[in-house]
Structure formats: C-alpha cells, structure tokens
Target: P2X purinoceptor 7-like
Amino acid sequence: MNTDELKSLCLSMVERQPGLVFNVMKEIDNNGDSQRTTRDDVPSWCVCQYCQEMPTEAERQCCGYTPNGCVTKWPEMQLYCLDNGVLSLCRGYRRSVFGLTIAGEDRDEIDDPNKSWRHAAYRQFILWRHGKIGRDDRRVIPSCCVWEIRKKFPNPHGQYVGFLASRLR
Model:
C-alpha cells in the first residue's frame, strides 16, 4: 500500500469513527518522553493529572493521556466544546431539528444560566469523540473534560446532575 492509499484509508476510518484519532494520539503520547507533573489532589485513577474526584464509579474516567497531552489542552476541545460561537450554532440547530422552543431553556436558565451551554458542550464532546451514537447508547465523558466544561459554564450553586446511564429510569 502506498502513502496516498494509506492516507485515504486513515481518513475514511476517521470519518466513520472519529474516536480512532484518540487511540492513535494515545499511542503517540504513551511512546513519547513527556514529563509527568503531579498534584496532591489528583485521584489515583487519573493519568492526565487534570481529573477531579467524581461522585460515582462510572464517572471516574480519565482521558488516558499524560499531562502534556490531556484532551482538555487540545485546540479541538477548545473549539468544538468550549467556543461560544460553535455552541450557539449547535444549540440553534438542535432546537430547529427537534422543534424545541427557547422558552424551555429560559425556564432552566433562571436557576442556572449556564445549564444549556454545559449540555451543548457535553453533546459536542460526545459527537467529537464518538461520532453519532444511538438513543440508548450513553457514554461517559472523562472527568478532566467534564471539569473543563464546568469551569467554563459553572452552575452558580455548584450543583451538577452527573452521568445518567439512561433517561428512562
């Protein structure tokens, strides 16, 4: 297989499953010679050094990269998941596709003005990381990424729902 065919194959695979990029980046990062800095409050299950403790076992997931390669530091994370312009576009598109009204968001935003922004950022992360997933296919966002989103769009009372395995419970 020549270089052009290999590039074409890789692009085709990434279009079908965007999360493959993370696997490749993890291999590159793990084989690199990055210095590991540690914090005292980093949970034992964290590799990247940016995670914080989470309330449930299911939510105790790390991106798996070393501190220099943590997903929260990637420009794509900043653009796809934390940029207000991108999130505004995504929120508008979602309202349009599902026929949602802004009034429902307005009620939520009385208590938590950042709630819909946080949820849009979570949806964007899942789309970026996993591509399109089905209705009952729920995924956990790594703790470091959850806290980066919460830092950008905080709840004024520090109250967060967390991961729900299913909405139908």
About this structure: The radius of gyration is 18 Å. The longest helix spans residues 115-130. The chain has a mean pLDDT of 79.
